Amino acid sequence: MTSVLMFCGLLGAGAWIYMKTAMHGFSARSEPSRTETMMANYARDTAMPSSAKKLSNPVRFSAEVEHEAMVHFADHCAACHANNGSGETMFGKGMYPKPPDLRLTRTQHLTDGEIFYVIENGIRMSGMPAFGGEGTAEDSWKLVYTVRHLPRLTPVEETEMESLNPKSPEELQEEKNEDEFLNGADSSSKTTTTHHTKGHQH
Ligand code: HEC
């Protein structure tokens, strides 16, 4: 009996999605309707176990920790979220659900544990990747401090972050060419160092 009901429910949902799609297409560019936003928030909230809510940040706060995490954010998160957390980036704008403005209540009202959980596990059915892996917990807890700091980010900090953002392939190529020009032909053996670590990916 329940399976018959479930079947009918699915059929109904399918028909609804089909009609919406037929009317508006399924582009990630169009503004999400209220129902869609609700569904996206629901996806986020159900993905979070209630035990995550209660976790408190085990990393002790210091100016160094905050700075280190800011550097990390500029490198790994800003491509989608922007340095200031607004989500106004080339990637961010083309995504659905879009990266929310991390400075606003929607994000700031999450507990530290929930923010940590999102960073470690990502959000299903969205562009938010999981950054968790072995030994990443500490980095993710530090990033929680960055997320909390975003509403108070200073212009000086933002400028510093800009200098730390990963460069586009074209820019990297240009730099390499300049390097080769300045150092003679055999600079190709030079290795570039990156400061990101363990299991994190773009
Ligand atoms: C490839 C793009 C992308 C990258 C890189 C990315 N995010 Fe996200 N992030 C998203 C999207 C899209 C969402 C919104 C998902 C949703 O609403 O379901 C999101 C959501 C979040 C949220 C939840 C906000 C809320 O109010 O629900 C947090 C916190 C977050 N990201 C932090 C980070 C941090 C920290 C990093 C770097 C370690 C990062 N993100 C890297 C795309 C990205």
Features:
disordered C terminus; 202 residues; binds heme C; globular; Cytochrome Bc1 Complex, Chain D, domain 2; mainly alpha; single chain
Task: Describe what you observe in this structure.
By secondary structure, the protein is mostly helical. The protein has one domain: Cytochrome c-like domain (Cytochrome Bc1 Complex, Chain D, domain 2, Orthogonal Bundle). It is built from 11 helices and no strands. The longest helix is centred in the first third of the chain and has 23 residues, at 2-24. The protein has helices at 2-24, 34-47, 50-53, 63-76, 78-81, 90-93, 105-108, 112-121, 137-149, 155-164, 169-183. The radius of gyration is 21 Å and the shape is globular. Helix 4 (63-76) packs across helix 9 (137-149) and helix 8 crosses helix 9. Bound molecules: heme C. Heme C (HEC) is lined by residues 40, 43-44, 73, 76-77, 79-81, 91, 95, 97, 99-100, 102, 106-107, 115, 118-119, 123, 126-129, 131, 143, 147.
